[in-house]
What we know:
By secondary structure, the protein is α+β, with helices and mostly antiparallel strands.
Amino acid sequence: MSGVSDMTRRAGAIAADPRKRRLGYALLALVLAALCVVPRPYVARAKMLPQDASSIGLGSMMNALGAQLQGLAALFGGAKQPIDLYLAIARGTEVTDAVIARLRLVGPDGYATQDAARVAMERKVDVHSLTGGIIEVEVRTHDRKQAEALAAAYVQAISDRIVALSRDRVERKRKIVLDRFRDASRKVVASEAALAKFRRSNQLAAPEAELGAALSIRAGLEAQLKARQVELQTLERFQGPDNAQLQAVRQQVASLRQQIASAGEPGRDASGPNVAGMSQISGEYLDLYRNYRFAQALYEVYARSSEEVAVETLAGETASDVQLVEAPHADPDRKYNIPAVALLLLVLLGAAFTEVYAPATGIAMPFRRQQDRAP
């Protein structure tokens, strides 16, 4: 405790002496000024642009295949990814570990542990976004070659990570689409077979044509019946009961009524079911036909989506998902050590306050009060 008290008294004595105090300010400012430029810091940077499907021409190819593919691409994750996602990938632990392993930063000539290397990378490397969705990697060290090597390693690690995640996403999409495509194919075959079997067993054509033909036949019979009934009423007014023409019209009316009555009873002949028979099976027939059309529509959708996945897989193999906008390089301008600059400004501000502002305004500093109390 006595040693600390002696040091405190000596510091107070130096601060109370204007010449020694100003000399201390000058020496401290000179040391900090030297530390601002020695050792010289270097800043290396690289700029990269993650690509989406539209940037490599995939969107135009998909438009040629059908409008449904845009919705499917968004559903399965094919839409453009936000820049925040790429930043999260670039700042992730996997990228940092890949850089550490690539440059062999852990070992006898590097950091002692993996955690120490990660902490050092967090201090030296800054990954941020720029206007236009560009990702910039900025490295600040006191070794020019190390800064450029770190920037290049980060660019390669980020690119590899994004490509790996993109391939995994495409592979999952391909598996889902192919599974659904196989299910849709089986449904089409099953529904088509059920519809064909029902047609053969009931001697039916297409539902619209079959029901329309049956209804047109019954409507024709009813129209003929009404016309004969009007003719019969006219003949009964002017002809006797034994008139041959009247008897013939009566027979025609009876025949038409019999035909309409037989059409009302469910039945079948060589040409297929009549109107009543068609009414009984039309519901089941339409259900089968509707299932077939639905299965066929699903088959067409997943057939097109399988083409979309195939083209996206091909595009991922032939084009990189990350475009290098600016290669890793060191800035040509002179850089300064920011902590030393901040301390130098603080010392200059303190000197200006104690030597200029305080005397001019009459502020009593502690060391001045101590000097005044001294005998």
